[in-house]
Amino acid sequence: MGDVLIVILPALILAGVLWAVAAALKPRNFGISDAERYQLELAMRSRAHYEAQVKAATAARARVDAATRPSQNEQQQSQQAEHARAASQGVRGPFSDRTQPGYPGAVLPGGQLNPQFALQLQALARSGHKVQAIKLLRQATHSDLLTAKNYVDRL
């Protein structure tokens, strides 16, 4: 029995030493130092943060564009284009009786509001007739209620 211990004990010690040497020489984390790993993590976090900011800015820009444009609906936009064409050709629209001679209509050919019409809306809004201003704007531009209300509120 003593002979077995004399043979097994050095073999166990040798196996332990070989294991320790192998563990010490084994590369850790694929050769990346802690500083390099930190820089990579920081770069990934920075890129993710930048992408989130770009996404939020794009969404905010889309909301602003949707709120400032008369309509996002193609049918309404085509109606606005037809109305603008009719106004530029001198066709009298439903609001031409409220205008001065030479006043082409509420919507100019580029889809912009006529400055005189905008002043008329502003006067209505400031005199406490916001509902009438919204109705007038909706009829002239064929825009939806929320867009017209937001426009009149900004006047």
Could you characterize what this model shows?
By secondary structure, the protein is an all-alpha fold. It is built from six helices and no strands. It has helices at residues 2-25, 34-68, 74-88, 115-126, 130-141, 145-154. α4 packs antiparallel against α5. The longest helix is centred in the N-terminal third of the chain and has 35 residues, at 34-68. It starts with a helix and ends with a helix. The model is unreliable at 91-103 (pLDDT under 50).
The residue fraction in helices comes out at 55-70%
Tell me the fraction of residues in β-strands, as a range: under 5%
Q: What characterizes the major β-sheet? A: none
Counted beta strands: 0
Runs in which pLDDT lies below 50 for 5 or more consecutive residues are 91-103
Overview features:
mainly alpha; 155 residues; 6 helices
Quick synopsis:
This protein has 155 residues and is mainly α.
Topology readout:
Elements: H1 2-25, H2 34-68, H3 74-88, H4 115-126, H5 130-141, H6 145-154
